[in-house]
Amino acid sequence: MRVRIRFSKTGKVRWTSHRDVARMWERALRRAELPVAYSEGFSPRPKVSFGLALSTGHESVAEYLDVDLVPDDLEIMGMPERLTECLPVGLAAQMAVPVGPRDPSLQQDVTSCSWDVEVVGLAPPDADRAVAGVLDSPQVFVTRSRKGTESTDDIRPAILALQVVGATSTGTLLRARLATQPRSLRPGELLAAVAPGLDEGRVLRTHQWIERDGARWEPVPLLATDAPHADRACA
Q1: Does residue 17 sit within a domain?
Q2: One digit per residue, pLDDT tens: the chain, 235 residues?
Q3: I need a labelling partner for 140 at 20 to 30 A (CA). Which of 3, 82, 169, 188 fits?
C-alpha cells in the first residue's frame, strides 16, 4: 500500500536541509510504529520517496512524500496526527491518502509551484514597475548556477504567473507560479530578474500543481475547493 502524505515545514526547521528532513521523517515513521516496507538487498532502505526538494531557508505548507506500507489494508485515518506527534516542531503532517503503485512519482507529476516571495528593500510602486517589465518582456535572461556550472538562460517561459501582493514590514510581497519542468525555476532566480541586487525575505511554497487537459490540482488537496479546476492567475 502506497500512501502520499502532505506536510508543512515552517519556522526554525526551515534551516534544516532536505536530507536531514528525510532522516527526521524516517525516524518519525519508526516512532509511530508504522509498518514501512523495505527494499531488498545487502543494505535495505525504507521505501520512502520525497517530492521536489525545498531549498534550505524556505518554508512550505505544501510538501509531499510517498511511503510504501504493508499490509495493503491499513487504516490511514488518524495517521497525520500520529506522525506529527513524532516529528520535530515545525514539521507537521496535514493529510494522508492512498495512491496507486503505478501512479507517476511526484518528481514526474508536478509541473509548477506557487510561491510567496518577500523582496527586502523594494517598495510596492517599484515592485509594480519591475513586475510589469518582466511580464511585458518576451525574454528574461538570468545567469544561474547548478552543481557548480553556470549558464545564462531565458526564464520567461517558466514564469507562469506573477503579481505584487502588497507591502511587508521590510519590503514587498510577490506571488508567483513557477514551472518545474523541463527545469525548475527557483524563487531566487526569479528575484534576480525582478529586482537584481536585492535580498529575499521570507519565501513560502504554498502549492505544488499537477496539470492535465487544461486543469490543475494539488497532489493532496486540503479542501474540496482544491479539486481540479481551470487555471487561476497566481493560485
Answers
A1: yes
A2: 899 999 999 999 999 999 999 999 999 999 999 999 988 878 888 899 999 999 999 999 999 999 999 877 778 889 999 999 999 999 999 999 999 878 888 888 999 999 999 999 999 999 999 999 999 999 999 988 877 788 899 999 999 999 999 999 999 999 999 999 998 999 999 999 999 999 999 999 999 999 988 889 999 988 644 443 334 345 5
A3: 169
In this structure, the dihedral spanned by the alpha carbons of residues 65, 71, 76 and 81, taken in order and rounded to 10 degrees, is -70
Do 58 and 124 lie in one domain? The reply is no
* Cα distance between residue 155 and residue 139, in whole Å: 7
pTM (2 d.p.): 0.90
Instruction: Write down which residue in 103, 134, 155 finishes a domain.
Output: 103
Report the length, in residues, of the chain. Answer: 235
| Residue 97 sits in the same domain as residue 43 | yes
Same domain, 85 and 151: no
**Burial (Cβ within 10 Å: 0-12, 13-18, ≥19) of residue 10:** middle
Q: Is 189 helix (H, G, I), strand (E, B) or coil?
A: helix
For helices 124-136 and 187-194, give the axis angle rounded to 10 degrees: 100
| Whether residue 185 sits in one domain with residue 155 | yes
Cα–Cα distance for residue pair 40/38, rounded to 1 Å: 7
- Domain limit, last residue, from 81, 103, 125: 103
Q: Residue 204: inside a domain, yes or no?
A: yes
